Structure formats: structure tokens, C-alpha cells
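pinned: reference chain
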Amino acid sequence: MADSPHIADVTAQDFEAQVLQRSHEVPVLVDFWAGWCAPCRALKPVLEKLAQEYQGKFFLAKIDTDKEQPLAAQYGIRSLPTVQLFRNGQAVDSFMGAQPERTVRALLDKHVARESDAIVRNALAAQQAGDLDQAATLLQQAVESDPANDRAKLALAGLLLARSQIADAEALLKSLSPDTRDSAEAAMLKAHMEFARLADGSLALTELEKKLAATPADSETRLHLSARQVLNGQYEAAMQNLLEIVRHDRKFRDDAGRKSLLAVFQLLGNNHELVKKYRPLLASALN
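pinned: its C-alpha cells
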């Protein structure tokens, strides 16, 4: 295995080229190990076997932590073996311990290129160009030809939600692998789905705005309006409406204002400026 083009011992001197730069081309699996570590020795043949089997779809970088202690410290390695997967210059996935082959394979399959990914790229290009029918057709083709491609399923679920095909999107999300089902992207789609459910069958956005202006204390209308606003990308307006429900009608629909506001946080992500703004406002309203 030492002569494999898909495997290399990496040091601090070539980490930039072998891991960070290469990860812009293919996923790089970095094995932090040590010679005295028995689980490391057990994991080594599993990783090397997969590197050979995948034939360049990922690169295996092996780092001896006894020789590269500063590099191990830089990436927070406290237990051996620790394996991190790098993509586009960042560690995006990891595991610790001598995991079985099926576990390592499942992690890799979330990130390595698949033949159906080309179909997904074409579908996303069609969606970007506004051809939603073509995008849906291509994504359906990708899912049918490669049922294990969770990336295709996530993309199709997002498109279905944009077209208010809620039941179909929900079925796709339920068919995801367990790891992807718990991912941040899936969580965002689930949050989006809840707002799509709320908006389904309600009045149009402008009609809801008129109704709320006439009856400001109507929490049901305010909730439906916030759902429409979320789906329309008017996140701050939606968050302000949900915060009003928390402040003035906390018991409405079993605390629907707070739960829906948390769903918007999940949809946008913790680092979004609006989440940073409204999280303390929510905390204040709850006290």
C-alpha cells in the first residue's frame, strides 16, 4: 500500500498541499494515528483497503501524531485514532476509534463523487435558470438511478417544497440514510417543510397582511402570515411576527410562536445575523 497513488504519509511541511489544496479536488481522509495505538493498527488496513477500492475518489493522508504533535494539536486531536474528512480546505466530517468498514464506507459515500452527481449538477443549473420542470425531471432521474445518493434526495426535496409538494418532500426526507437524516441540511429542509405546512391552504400573503392590520390580536393570522413570509424569504418580518406571538399570546397553539421562531433559527443557521439578533430578543421575551 505504501506505493499507492491514493495514500500518503503527510507531515506539517506538506499538509497544505496534500490535504488542504487537494481537498478542493477530491475528499481527503486524514488518519491521525500513532505506532503504540492498537486501535490505530486495527483501523489502518480498513482505510487502506477502501482507498484502493475507491480508486482515487478520495485520498488517504496518514499523520503520525508522535512526530507531528503541533499539527495534531492544531486540529484538536485528543483521542487516537481520529479520522477527519476534509473538503474544500475544511474538516467537514470525522469519527474516532477503530470503526468497522461499513461505518467508514458510509462516511465516505456522503462525500465522494458519484456518477449521478453530474445529473444533480445539471438539475441545479436548470433550477438556477428558472426551469423548475427540467430540474425536477433530472433530480428524479438521479434519485431513481442512484437511490443511495442523499445529495440528490436533498436537492429534490428542496425543489418539491418550493413547489408545495409537501408529502412527496417528506417521503424523500424519510428515505435518507440515518446520518444524512440528522444533518444540518436535512434539518433546514424539515424546518422549511413545517412552514410550508402552515402556509398550505391559507390566504395569500397580501390578504393575510390586510387581515392582520384589521385584527392585530389575531395570532392565527399572524402565524400564517409568518409562514408565508418565511417561504417568501422575508425572514425578519416573519421573526418579528413570531416574537409578537411569544410576547402577547404565549399559550397560543401550545407555544407555537416560540417553536416556530426556533424553527426559523434552524432554517437560517446559528451564524446568521438575524438569528444573532433575535435569539436574545426571544430570551428576553421568555423571562
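why pinned: The longest helix spans residues 38-54. The chain has a mean pLDDT of 94.
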